[in-house]
Amino acid sequence: MLFLTVMKCDTSQSQSSIVDPPKAWRRAHPRWLQVTVLLVVFTAGGLVGAMFGIKSVHLRMEYYRQNADALPNAIVPRLKFILELTDQQAEHIREIINDRHPRIIEYREQGSAAMHAEFDAMEREIAEILDEQQAEKWSMFAERVRLRFLPP
To answer: Which residues contact 63 (CB under 8 A, 6 or more apart)?
Structure first.
């Protein structure tokens, strides 16, 4: 739309002055460009978030490798909640993890076969002190740990 404004004429001027029309609203970018920019921004944000998440998990795993004593203190309360363990079972599991975790770290440097064998032995040893329902939950939990944190 073109707006024209006519200013009042001075009596000394014979013609009316025409003023420039006001600036029209800025036209928006095409829809495809807006959608593309939106997708690029959100994809970049997702990638940055994923990188921070991966780095966080990696740092935590490295911390537990360097401080083998810290893992049982971190994992036993979680297992106690998930598996509904008694205090006696929790203490026994803490001893098993204290015994097996340093060996798993040691075997990590030798290769994944020895590390998997040690993890399997720890899994069986813990399952022996649990009842059926707890053993089933433990089996699912151990499988998630195996898939997520142990090398193939």
So the answer is: 70
